[in-house]
Design brief:
- The structure is a homodimer of 312-residue chains.
- Chain A is an alpha+beta fold and 312 residues long.
- Chain A contains 8 helices and 13 strands.
- In chain A, helix 3 links the parallel strand 4 and strand 5.
């Protein structure tokens, strides 16, 4: 390697290790064959993994390694949020382009730092590789359930109110690289209102709500077009591509807001007195029959739950 | 996709899910934002991750996806073995070459099956992606400690006997694709003899023993050349490349045998009455001073702990 700083794989690992502080929950961090963690007695362990590839989920040349690191941990934190879980620790595996390996690894790590610190995530392990291919990063995030329990996708019931935590659409303009995981919001909401089902909006509102409805036994939903919060980025993107802002709000992915369903009375109470720092929008109702519909001034229109197919 | 069988990302996930049975430890498997697991009360969670890339860790065209799947879970199981842990669950993230995505995913999964079943590993989550790049797979394996505790790299003491569980060298001839993780062996050894330090031989005996010695405070070791068990593959490779079989045994990686250090009296007892199914070779002694030496008929020769640098 011609870069200054740590040399080779083990030099890099030592460099990372020297800059990694772990909390009391981590019995054993970087530097052994496995990490070891203490899970709270009575809690379930939560685990999720996401792989991001240069040219698919980001453009390394445009975004830079810091943004990639931020996104890689952010999308996983968002999955922990979607269960109303508490994050604990991360493992980070990378395939680094040869010649830039150390520089990229340092950038990625720097990018992860603020989100990891804010949410108490220990970096406990990983795997560093270099190759002639594009940059690939896979983060596995471990967390645990709280005494309020995990919120699954599968618990929606006919008549449930559908609620989202923020405006949607147009994340491609930059927000997709800067997830704001709704960890604190999810914990507050779960403590107050015990949602029946929850998911984070990563594939697009229609697709992700579709996952909830499918997992809950083939239910449907009617969304009220006027109440779906539309992000300014969706308006901006609409002016460029001619698709309506509402289409962007329904089908763009990577907003990383939460979509939840809950008892309508609980929704009313929650929206009347939202937990501190939590924004909530009631956007529709769960139906007993299948299918996703949009209620507009002109009547009911079916919504195709297209979303993003990562194999497409 | 032109392949028969499951269509698209969600079709593939459904296909995998329908073929995945999970045990009683998994509260929530594939199909939600996170998996949820029960860790035994009092046990520590163990976590490890390894990323394998086409052209670096395997050649997809030669090995086929089944062998890649077997290796990907095998190397991670070997890391759990190195801690004397019990495996629980796996998360599998893949970047699949477009056009072959579904076929490859199915092959990888089929290859993982036997090792997963044998060691009680539930497939609880993952991430499926397709791209124009080479095949990449990252497996994260979760396990837990037993009441006998985890064996770290850092506990070696001067005077400890150094023991390995099988012959070394020449894994490149094929064994590197077919790890036999020493899970059962590690559990038996830990129950009987409480090793002070343990690692699996993935970077090469000299390098991995070097990790133990470095983590244990900068100790050294003297290996007895006559007692290091040499694999027939090391002999075969030696005839091809002119390096000695012993060089291969010392420096080739991916043998996935265990290397451990323990009290010499415990070693004597263990070797005199090895646990059922466990092969053991005593190959040297831990020294108080740093440096790795080889005792030969002609005296002491220093060993360079080169091994494999994944960023090299």
């Amino acid at each position: 390697m011609s870069e200054p700083g740590p040399v080779g794989e083990f030099g890099l690992i030592d460099w990372i290790r020297a800059r990694t502080r772990v909390g009391g929950r981590t019995s054993l961090g970087i530097g052994d064959d496995c990490a070891a963690l203490r899970v709270t007695t009575g809690a379930d362990l939560l685990a999720t993994t996401d792989m991001l590839m240069d040219g698919t989920h980001f453009r390394l040349d445009e975004a830079g390694p810091e943004a990639v690191g931020r996104k890689a941990i952010g999308v996983n934190l968002s999955d922990i949020a979607a269960m109303a879980g508490r994050p604990l620790a991360a493992l980070v595996a990378v395939a680094l382009p040869k010649g830039r390996a150390v520089e990229l690894a340092q950038g990625v790590l720097a990018g992860m730092g603020p989100l990891a610190q804010r949410y108490g995530v220990d970096l406990v392990g990983g795997d560093t590789n270099a190759w002639d291919g594009p940059f690939v990063i896979a983060v596995t995030l471990l967390g645990e359930t709280t005494p309020d329990g995990a919120v699954r996708r599968s618990g929606a019931r006919p008549g449930d109110a559908i609620v989202v935590t923020g405006p949607l659409g147009g994340s491609l303009l930059g927000r997709h690289l800067d997830p704001r995981p709704r960890i604190d919001e999810a914990l507050s909401i779960n403590r107050r209102a015990r949602p029946h089902a929850m998911i984070d909006v990563s594939d697009g509102l229609a697709a992700d709500l579709g996952h909830i409805l499918a997992e809950s036994g083939g239910l449907g939903a009617t969304l009220d077009a006027d109440t779906i919060p539309i992000h300014p980025d969706a308006e901006a993107l609409s002016r460029r591509d001619g698709r309506t802002p509402l289409e962007h709000a329904l089908h763009d992915g990577e907003d990383f807001e939460l979509c939840l369903t809950l008892d309508p009375a609980d929704a009313e109470d929650l929206l009347a007195r939202p937990p501190a720092g939590v924004t909530l929008h009631r956007i529709g109702v769960v139906d007993a029959g299948p299918g996703l519909r949009l209620a507009t001034g002109g009547g009911l229109v079916p919504i195709e739950p297209r979303g993003y197919d990562h194999l497409g």
